[in-house]
From TrEMBL:
UniProt-annotated location(s): Cell membrane
GO CC, alphabetical: plasma membrane
InterPro entries, sorted: EmrB-like, MFS, MFS_dom, MFS_trans_sf
Protein name according to UniProt: MFS transporter
Residue ranges annotated for the Major facilitator superfamily (MFS) profile domain, each copy included: 1-428
Cross-referenced Gene3D superfamilies: MFS general substrate transporter like domains, Multidrug resistance protein D
The organism of origin for this protein: Virgisporangium aliadipatigenens
GO terms, molecular function: transmembrane transporter activity
Protein topology in the membrane: Multi-pass membrane protein
Keywords: Cell membrane, Membrane, Transmembrane, Transmembrane helix, Transport
Record family assignment: Belongs to the major facilitator superfamily. EmrB family.
Transmembrane segments: 35-55, 67-89, 95-114, 121-143, 149-167, 179-200, 206-223, 239-264, 276-294, 301-323, 335-356, 377-400, 406-425
Keyword Signal listed: no
Keyword Cell membrane: yes
Length: 441
């Protein structure tokens, strides 16, 4: 499961480094070459809605293996692309497969290990998810320095093939009878998510508005249908609803950080893109080191309590960037980044694990899909908002614009603290609720 999650994150991060080189080699402009990244992002969002139904129909293990096989083949197609159109089409195929990998993998793990060990297992998976975007820019820079851009995709092949060979160890189980596919709901949601993600990520108001409209239509449709493509009735469980709210806020803060901190080093401190990527590795190391501890804490104390502590730590490690001078001591900056990475490990993963613990095994396919959707949408909106704040404030200087943006990022983190408190209260209430036994039999 970790290999699939790692490949999905690595591929997105590695390719961004090579867009300029790809554009020159394929004789196209950077605006067109940008769709090598954009197509992946939009396709990833488009495939999420079908994941729950497909996991029931095929079984999550078969779905995961199929998605990984398509992803690996698509990587090879990207490497041999001779035109920009071919490359974008192959990247769309990659994105469709990648959107299925993480939810299907989470469903497999949730069914295999049970709620008592779910925290530590999800934390292990989280290490792969965290390290991929951290090492991606570095790997991409090294590949482009010594090799050519097709190797950005060829490096996926050995990992993908090894993971496919290891797939015989997965608990396959059997497929279910999920009922007829909700075509109308799938169409509405498959339009809503890419439009929202694209409109937010690239500040396009019309796609964003259309996406929100389609999303509202899907909610109205799903609540009337007996078997919708995604069961929104899960949100009637307070702990699940609170966990999703926490995950959405965490997604906004996490993806917002992914936008702000590279700008902090490049605009504020004058670093080159590759140097900025290397300077951010300390945050990923902090996350990777603390995630295993975070998982064990979740299994012992619950996702809400750990996410609340992590949210408070996230606020505490974001505030300094909103008040310090942009040229603050480098050692201090690296220490804050390391501590902030540790705080992310305590704030993000516990929220998603709390959502999975709040549902039954049968509901996991819908739950994993929905949690990934709210995290992605929250991330897209957060990233877009913080980019706009920086861009609008540059007239008064990069330092002032960045400090203002980190102030808003602190506010988003405070919202995450409030949602985590709600999750902690909801989990406590569900534990204290008395169990009634039907003695009529």
């Amino acid at each position: 499961m970790a290999s699939g999650a790692f490949l999905s994150g690595l591929d997105a991060a590695v390719v961004n480094v090579g867009l300029d080189t790809i554009g020159r080699d394929l004789d196209t402009t950077l605006d067109v070459a940008q769709w090598v990244a954009n197509g992946y992002l939009v396709a990833f969002a488009a495939s999420l809605p079908a994941c729950g139904w497909l996991a029931r129909r095929l079984g999550p293990a078969r779905l995961w293996l199929g998605a990984l096989a398509v992803f690996t083949v698509a990587s090879g197609l990207c490497a041999v692309a001779g035109t920009i159109g071919w490359l974008v089409a192959a990247r769309v195929l990659q994105g469709l497969a990648a959107g299925l990998l993480i939810p299907a993998g989470q469903t497999i793990l949730g069914r295999a290990v049970g709620p008592q060990r779910l925290g530590r297992v999800m934390a292990t998976l989280g290490v792969a998810v965290t390290l991929a975007p951290a090492v991606g820019p570095v790997v991409g820079g090294v590949v482009l320095h010594y090799l050519s851009w097709p190797w950005l995709f060829l490096i996926n092949l050995p990992v993908g093939l090894l993971a496919l060979l290891a797939g015989r160890r997965l608990p396959y189980g059997t497929g279910e009878r999920p009922g007829p596919l909700d075509h109308a709901g799938l169409l509405l949601l498959s339009l809503a998510l890419p439009l929202v993600v694209y409109g937010a990520a690239f500040t396009e108001p019309l796609p964003l508005a259309l996406g929100i409209l389609c999303g509202g239509a899907f909610v109205a449709h799903a609540l009337r249908r007996e078997r919708p493509v995604l069961d929104l009735r899960l949100f009637r469980t307070p702990a699940y609803a609170a966990a999703c709210a926490t995950a959405a806020c965490a997604g906004a803060a996490m993806f917002g950080s992914a936008v702000l901190f590279p700008l902090y080093f490049q605009l504020g401190r004058g670093a080159e893109p590759l140097d900025a990527g290397l300077l951010l590795v300390s945050a990923s190391i902090g996350t990777a080191l603390v995630l295993p501890v975070s998982g064990r804490l979740v299994d012992r104390f619950g996702g809400g309590a750990v996410a609340l502590a992590g949210g408070l730590a996230l606020v505490g490690t974001t505030v300094p960037f909103a008040v310090l001078d942009v040229n603050a001591d480098g050692v201090l900056v690296q220490a804050l980044l390391f501590l902030r990475g540790a705080a992310v490990a305590l704030a993000v993963m516990p929220a998603t694990t709390g959502a999975f613990k709040a549902v039954t095994v049968e509901q996991l396919p819908d739950a994993t899909t929905q949690v990934n959707i709210v995290t992605r949408v929250g991330g897209a909106l957060g990233g877009a908002a913080f980019t706009l704040i920086v861009a609008s404030g540059l007239a008064s200087g990069a330092g002032a614009a960045l400090r203002e943006s980190f102030g808003w990022l602190t506010g988003a983190s405070v919202l995450g603290v409030a949602a985590a408190f709600w999750l902690a209260v909801a989990e406590r209430a569900s534990q204290d609720r008395p169990v009634t036994v039907d003695m009529s039999s």
